[in-house]
Amino acid sequence: MKNLEKLLEEHNLTREEYERIKSILGREPNLVELGLFSVMWSEHCSYKSSRIHLKKLPTRGKYLIQGPGENAGVVEAAGKAVVFKVESHNHPSFVEPYQGAATGVGGILRDVFTMGARPVALLDSLHFGPLERPSNRAIMEGVVSGIAGYGNPVGVPTVGGEVDFEEEFSHNPLVNVMCVGIAEKEKIFYARAGKPGLSLIYAGAPTGRDGIHGATMASAEFGEETEHKKVNVQVGDPFREKLLLEATLEVMERDLIVGIQDMGAAGLTSSSSEMASKSGVGVDLYLDRVPLREEGMTPYEILLSESQERMLMVAREGKEEEIKAVFDKWGIDAVVVGKTTEGDRFRAFWHGEMVADVPVKSLASDAPAYERPYKKPNPDETWKESWTRERDWEDALKRILSSPHMASRRWIYQQYDHMVQTNTVLLPGAGAAVLKIKGQKEGIALTIDANPGWGRANPEGAAVLTVAEAFRNLACLGAEPLGITNCLNFGNPEKPDIMGQFVATVEGMKRALEFFEVPVTGGNVSFYNETQGKAIPPTVTIGAVGLVEDYMVIPRPGRVEEGMGIFLLGWTGRDLGSSLYLKVVLGEEGGRPPEINLERERLLQRELIHLAREGRFAYAVDLSPGGLLPNLAEALFHIGMGAELSIETEDEEVYFLFGESPSRALVFASGDLEAEVPVKKIGLVKGERLTAYVNGRKKIDLPLEELKKDWENFFPSLFDR
Amino acid sequence: MKAKIEVFLKPEVLDPQGETIKRALHTLGYETVKEVRQGKVFYIDLEDENPEKVIEEIARKVLSNPVIEDFRWEIEK
Amino acid sequence: MGNRKVRFGVVVFPGTNCDRDTYHVIQDVAGEEVVYLWHGERDLKGSRVVVLPGGFSYGDYLRSGAIARFSPIMEAVREFAEEGGLVLGICNGFQILLEAGLLPGAMLRNRGLRFICRFEDLVVENDETPFTLLYQRGERIRMPIAHIDGNYFAEPRALAELEGRRGVVFRYLKNPNGSLNDIAGIINPRGNVMGLMPHPERASEAELGSTDGLRMFLSAARYVRES
Asked: ipTM exceeding 0.95?
């Protein structure tokens, strides 16, 4: 064996971890075994820095069917199982944006259909560096095409998402992809291995050297040598994924398998050891039977390869041939590569010779868990008198609307097939997505939200605000939240400051979720999002699923008519810190993020859900980020009509027009609107201009078309010159 | 033996990809570029007694669409 | 013939992804009978209308629709078309019909080089085909498109021939992809094989934003019932 230090460094293992491996095995590990431990004990697979904290999150709820620990979480909606999860593919998307994003989509799709659910929707949360820089534009363009290039052929609509820009994402873009599927409640599949003596069937693409040590790559910082890391890039094949999806659902439908797991990070090793571990059995793998794409591959490489579009299944007794026949029909290779055994050993053989022999649990569940030292961040409490000074509100409105943070995302979402499967009741752009469930009157509402600006200023507060915003987006459609999935994106957890951000974020999520009584059903943690010591702002991405009682009567812009009233529901405070107004108009970063009173937030959301279900309003929008005026303008673009506003405020005008107080919504309704929260009628839907009188003085008077043009053209003018 | 088949759009067919690449090259300062046409190359490894016939047929029937594309091929022994 | 249901066949190639949507609309919305037709078989199972649905057959890896045309089922579809049977190609299905030579012309990459998914306004140019009996000539309708290779091309002579015989059935009101003469859908000279890039099955239920596509399936069914 070569120099041990060097070997450990290459495998991203510490000296202590190596000693631990030795004591588990009672001997020195061989190279193959070292490789197994290095991937299974990587941050990516083992959550060694985050596990003890994630346990604090609420994982029970009245709609919950399956919480964290499986390929995806499951909640019940309208008698069906809704399977969903969000996962990051940040590092690969920086190294190779197209393939990184594409394989991110592929991976999350497999997580959902291995549970027995047909994927019905994709959403994504994307964060890039500022677009003035060509390198950032290239990353964004690659990521968007990658999502389209994979999601579109597979035939799963990308129905929603969010995208934003901050300097720190230039070297560490975030690509968080969420997939939602629907299954029959009694037909959910889990990562189980059943009993000893069953065959392990490998199905899908042949194994190549793709992404060997991808899992450990996602667990280390980038240095200057990212070029060199290109060898780790995995290439996606959406065509094969589509066939794999159909074949997998068919073997499930015919009840031919006991359990199944995607061969994602750490490939064959993690899928086989995790299934075996959950069922308390051992596993034997015959590596020489694994279909290979490249010549001369070693057992080490075969065990650690992360080639895409592969599945490992445990066959029901005697069903091997039937399973193969199904996969054959779909043109997919399926071969027996091992079996479950009595005992607790994970053993791998190469032409009859045993090349690895370790306890199953040592890989799957006995990874070290660290209580890393942390230092809680001090929240940014900055507040400046100068922010409130009156300015040209027309100019401010125009600048915010045509900024990358608020401009129309149509250029992005029209590259995604968002209508395939014919369930998309509410098209992207106008709020959360709504999908119908065929054959039922109920539907599901989906949203994904993140706000790194808040995270930078106050990680704990950001987590609370993000959860509240996600649920508010659902509430605007009359949808009640059923569960969430989350992606936690941070820098290097070995640094106490970063670990402190993480701990604070988890605490914020816990507080909000316990308050709303909504469980976490799964998700992932992405650490080491830093380059040359510079970390991203802590970013919590929340994907939420809500229940729509009757998709035929949901609020939508098309239901708004001329003459309807515009009502502001909720409470307006003095929330300008970390706002778009500050960033875009005043050119200032940071500042105290909005304050939220959860009791009020709950009251507002209950009212919105109640009024929406009663059909009391035509359309409603959430007001953050951007505040009242920009969000009203955006709503009017979707509605296709102007408005005349008459606003009375005793406070500085800017709070009312551009402040980002959370517990508010703008509602379009005819007649009077009564609610259990403060209601203020601020204007009427009318004509083709946006006119606003503030305390009796005309402050805004613009043709809607003119505003809309700049809002619409931002992305096309940047990318389609 | 190895064959190389090139498939490219007929001269009279507009090539939106080539046009876009040309514009990009101009923006990058390569003003001398007059035209860009994008095509595809296929490398085929085969054992056949009459490779010319097979390659010609594959190129014509499968790899190209005669409405918009032409092709040429060569065999490296 | 009374009100007997008309049997539609929806062809499934590897990579087809609008098969289930099309099946659903024909059965649950149009109320006709429908069966899947597997690409590897030659039996049309008694279908009176064969639909080649949208998707990415064979990943669209060589050219959109290029590999699917060699499937065994396509031999049966060709014979069926030669006997006057109704064949409708939607999106990728249209591309397959072009590649198979059952319709004239070819598809190029969209002018903007990007995939486009959105509703488009179309004008009905020909209301005398079996697929457009229930439309009015000159009528404006709305249907979604979702493609990257929908830029219709035909040589000048072929294009003149197509226009001369009123072979263009649908035109875009605002050309999204660079198609010659704003062409969105065409029919063969015999009038039994039609292809279009927009998706009628995505515009067949009110909650999805348009029902303008439904009449296409209803027209074909009526034509078969009355013939």
From this structure: yes
